[in-house]
Amino acid sequence: MKTKIILVIIIVLCTFFIGMMLFIKYYSPKEKSNQLLSNVSVVDGKQIISITAKGGYFPRITNAKADIPTTIKLNTKATFDCSSAIVIPGINYRSYLPPSGETIIDIPSQKAGSSMNGTCSMGMYGFVINFN
Ligand SMILES: [Cu+2]
């Protein structure tokens, strides 16, 4: 009788832990990866691409939409490395980003299949936005 109760408790605990693990596996990481991927959003017919500059540019590769007016939003947060000196040759953009804050760059709608590169002024860090 006692062993039966212990067995039931073990089965209940195992089910609980397996449930927890499945929950963590199928819900949390998915949401996290979606958050990482969703650096592109469309607000009022305008595409906003969010890129963080700190020790490089993140995400390094962005897949964005073509044929829609676009804003590149560069985020800095205690960025004291050279990624704050940014160059986007395709639009003749060259600037020093503030150590912390948001820098908005409006770009015209891009053709499908085109891409836009950005680098730090020394060319050691880079990012690319692909328009499709
Ligand atoms: Cu650099």
SSE arrangement:
Elements: H1 2-26, H2 28-37, E1 40-43, E2 46-53, E3 57-58, E4 61-64, E5 70-76, E6 85-88, E7 93-96, E8 101-107, E9 115-120, E10 126-131
Parallel strand pairs: 2-5, 4-10
Antiparallel strand pairs: 1-2, 2-3, 5-8, 6-7, 6-9, 9-10
Bound molecules: copper (II) ion.
Descriptive labels:
binds copper (II) ion; elongated; alpha+beta; 2 domains; Immunoglobulin-like; 2 helices
Number of helices: 2
Rg (C-alpha, Å): 23 Å
Output the structural class.
Answer: alpha+beta
Per DSSP, what share of the residues sits in E-state strands of 2 or more residues?
Answer: 35-45%
Report the sheet with the most strands, covering strand number, pairing sense and barrel closure. Answer: 5 strands, mixed
Number of strands: 10
Question: Which stretches are low in confidence, meaning pLDDT under 50 for 5 or more residues running?
Answer: 29-35
CATH first level of the largest domain: Mainly Beta
* Shape-level CATH architecture of the largest domain: Sandwich
Averaged pLDDT, please?
Answer: 86
Identify the quaternary structure here: single chain
Q: What fold name goes in the CATH topology slot of the largest domain?
A: Immunoglobulin-like
Ligands in the model, by name, code or SMILES, are: copper (II) ion
Assign a percent range to the helix content: 25-40%
Domain count, please report it: 2
